[in-house]
Amino acid sequence: MPRAAPVLALLSLAALSACATGPTISERLSTYVGRSELDLVSALGVPTRSYETGGQKFLAYEEQRTVAVPGAYPGGFAGGPFYGGFGRGFYGGGYAAFGNSYVPVQCDVTFALREGRVASFTYRGQGCA
Hints:
This protein is of the alpha+beta class. 21% of the residues lie in helices and 36% in strands.
């Protein structure tokens, strides 16, 4: 999805930073607070959807990707007792091959704008890091 490319880049950096010390996703997203809608769209691309109500505008960005998770057993299998977890209890529900499970993850980021400027943001999903 072409419009998700800038968000994908932002969230890919978030995933990489989970292994290193650096700014959190909240710290990175907070740099957009106070910026204009034009600045936000220029930096992140066209949002997936938008909504206006009560004098506020909301711009939502969605990113979905598939990640490889090492299986708990050689050869792994979908729905197996993988450790850690998100989604359906464990890492189950993915696709397994060669000891890895492939699991879909998602991150949704919504910016709230007042008077054409970013006032706040929220994010949710197991793909947000």
